[in-house]
Specification:
70% helix; 2 domains; single chain; Arc Repressor Mutant, subunit A; 207 residues; 9 helices; Tetracycline Repressor, domain 2
């Protein structure tokens, strides 16, 4: 019996990262809404079953890395040295979490290009970034011994998230190496964190 030949094209992929990379390039080329799940599966040379073993949906290709990133940020904050000023901890953990997430292939930053050009992803994006800000708010609230929904923790979470997101968006066209960008992020966050630490210090004993 003659073995069926595999159609020509991209070789079959066998990992989440490779499927992700192909999908991201398709989104950039055709737009998120213009790229069907069937197109991604065909381009990757995998079965639908294999695809759904890696991703629960098309949108998860975009969001799963953010979920992982936010969980890692929470873990770093939970394990941080509580003798350090709270905003020093926040700044360090934000940079370290990104260092663990960002990749030299540029996949992480390509997500932001896709997000900025895909209105249909914005509602879910708002939820994702709220979760990220909540990680910071909850840490600050724990240091203060107050609710994370209080004025100070919630404001700090929102301020750090806004600065972080603005910085990442500014990197979209940058050709600098990741190591240099991370140093810039830490430097960019430092003045904001210093101001916010002053606000925290006025809440009582040094936090």
């Amino acid at each position: 019996m003659t073995q069926a030949r595999r159609p020509r094209g991209r070789p079959p992929l066998s990992s989440r990262e490779k499927v992700e990379a192909v999908a991201i390039e398709l989104f950039l080329e055709h737009g998120y809404s213009g790229t069907s799940l069937a197109t991604i599966i065909e381009a990757c040379g995998v079965s639908k079953t294999t695809f759904f073993r890696y991703f629960a949906s098309k949108s998860e290709i975009i969001w799963y890395a953010f979920d992982t990133h936010t969980r890692h940020l929470r873990r770093l904050l939970a394990e941080a040295d509580s003798s350090e000023p709270a905003m020093t901890v926040v700044r360090t953990c934000v940079v370290d979490a990104l260092r663990a997430s960002i990749d030299e292939r540029g996949i992480w930053m390509k997500r932001f290009i896709i997000l900025d050009g895909s209105p249909e992803l914005r509602p879910e994006g708002s939820t994702q970034w709220t979760s990220w800000a909540d990680a910071v708010s909850e840490y600050v609230a724990g240091r203060l011994g107050v609710s994370e929904r209080g004025l100070v923790p919630a404001s700090i979470g929102g301020a750090v998230q806004a600065a972080y997101l603005a910085t990442l968006r500014g990197w979209q066209t940058s050709s600098k190496p990741v190591s240099e960008l991370l140093l810039e992020l830490e430097a960019d966050l430092a003045p904001l964190c210093d101001v916010l630490q002053g606000w925290l210090d006025r809440q009582g004993p040094r936090r």
